[in-house]
Specification:
homodimer; alpha/beta; Rossmann fold; 2 domains; 8-stranded mixed β-sheet; about 15% strand
Chain lengths: ~325, ~325
């Protein structure tokens, strides 16, 4: 049997299994209703060869924001929690931080004081904690942090703070021939160590903000050093740029939760005739958090105003989702 | 049947087909001998769960340079051919080019005169032909050029100037669970329109040099404009940087043909214990071209000197390959 015949046989066997995929048991943590139906209708339509809106498998690209879309982003972005923990861990090596903002405020646990140093201060925090080591070392630091740290409200590991209905949505799309990507403002090397386990998304399908790296030989061994210099910010109008740069084709499905996803939603739903935009609206103060127009993290204003007009689905976490997290009691 | 069960069944059925994959009929355009055997031995070893050198499928990442590795790069990089053709096509809109280098030399067909303007001139040519339009427009321009243009020596379309044995190698690796990527100094948006058809590699698995793009609304429709500004050069020490940025894990297989691939080969074969480095050596002046240390395009010097020491396979095109191009008479 030639390679081609084998590959063809594999695809054929998989295809036999696919017609079962849009069944009622999909998306089990979604309540029946308008939101779930809209998703199922879209997927059913674009995967049905007899439908005029059929989309070939290779064009079934779906992009997901991460913070606030696939996992929680309150009381602060988890990556900021990582940076603050790292400042504390590194403080003994930096006695000068006791007298220098924004480090002084961070070490005193004064987040308002930290915020007073503005974007410049935030960049300093990121560079002090995210640069100055090899990529391999940073991977280890991040992996260790996820293993050791807990969310301040739930007491669960951060990488269990993922939204079960969104993980089901990722599974459902993949079962229907979609290729799923993360497109996040978060640092790509902060996410990659956990996305395969958390979402079934491999490192090469994670698009995010990057800092510059440089190839070097250390004791004759090749390494990549992380430099204190921002390379790319994958947020706002940077998201379509990142999608084009890393993925190279226009997705047909985009999910976000904030105005930082606005341009991505426009880019994805303004392209091919069959496309779907989804916004996760944080409406559940009891099980998660309730916030939108006034939030420091994940502000949702403009994108919500235009959701109706642009036919973007506004998912109501409180009413659309049976469960938020997998660890909730059944 | 749950999504999980279905996915599992698919993988299982595919797995049943895989044990047939390392057979004699693989790599049919490779002559039996040391080179072919080294490739088959490596793939057999890393795919055998009982072997100490087994590598899990998700870590089977293979990266390939493009120019001179997957297709020809003589008498000049095909992308340069594209740029020169575009200069001629755009000349009527730019009467000033008749008096300005490097455009004047290009329009006069004087490649030596063009070369005299150095790297600065080359960048000017690239920016004049690769920027100033939307990404969608550029995709169309590239696609049309490939459909209309012919290689100066063979008279074949450029996208048929691919090396059949290397396409078989890509197929063979994929049949054995590898995920294949292009990592090229060429422009990513020059390659992406053709890589799926030419190599079975989708756009999102093509890493290359990029120019800056900017999101904008034109008549209310979102577009990405290509700006006359280099964003990233994916060559030399930039290749490990690009691999880390776009792919996010260290490959175990790398193929190149020039010193521009040296750092990539070091990075890939200096990492995990099981890895493979391959260099395509252009030794066939009759069927393709013969060049190495002195070539303007694809100079191979340092990487060849160190090939033995680093256990990189030097593929001898003349003696290792039965055929170079698919269009050759059998």
């Amino acid at each position: 049997m030639s390679v081609f015949t084998r590959a063809f046989a594999g695809v054929f066997l998989l295809a036999l299994l696919l017609p079962f995929s849009a069944q009622a048991e999909d998306l089990p943590s979604w309540n029946d209703g308008k939101s779930k139906q809209a998703i199922v209708d879209f997927v059913t339509k674009v995967t049905d060869e007899k439908n005029a809106d059929f989309v070939k498998p290779e064009d079934r690209i779906a992009v997901f924001d991460n913070d606030g879309t696939l996992w929680s982003e309150q009381p602060y972005y988890f990556q900021l929690g990582f940076a603050l923990d790292r400042i504390k861990a590194l403080a003994p090596e930096h006695p000068e931080w006791k007298e220098t903002e924004p480090f002084k405020s961070v070490l005193a646990g004064d987040l308002k004081g930290m915020a007073a140093s503005g974007e410049k201060g935030l960049v300093e925090l990121m560079m002090a904690t995210h640069a100055g080591m090899t990529t391999d070392s940073f991977n280890t630091i991040v992996t260790d942090w996820f293993a050791a740290s807990k969310h301040p409200k739930t007491g669960k590991p951060y990488n269990e703070m993922t939204f079960l209905p969104m993980r089901e949505l990722l599974d459902y799309l993949r079962a229907n021939g979609f290729k799923t990507f993360i497109v996040s403002g978060g640092g790509v090397e902060f996410m990659r160590p956990i996305t395969e386990h958390a979402y079934g998304i491999p490192p090469e399908q994670v698009v995010g903000s990057t800092i510059a790296t440089e190839y070097a030989l250390v004791d004759g061994e090749p390494v990549l050093n992380r430099l204190p210099k921002i390379d790319f910010i994958d947020d706002g109008a940077g998201k379509p740029v990142g999608i084009n740069k890393f993925i190279g084709r226009r997705p047909i499905f985009a999910a976000g939760n904030s105005d930082g996803d606005y341009e991505m939603l426009r880019w994805v739903t303004g392209g091919k005739p069959n496309s779907f935009g989804l916004i996760v609206h944080h409406t559940d103060a009891a099980r998660e958090y309730a916030y939108d127009r006034e939030s420091h993290f994940g502000k949702l204003n403009k994108a919500m105003d235009e959701a109706d007009q642009r036919n973007w689905l506004l998912v109501d976490m409180k009413n659309d989702w049976k469960k938020i997290y997998a660890f909730e009691a059944p």
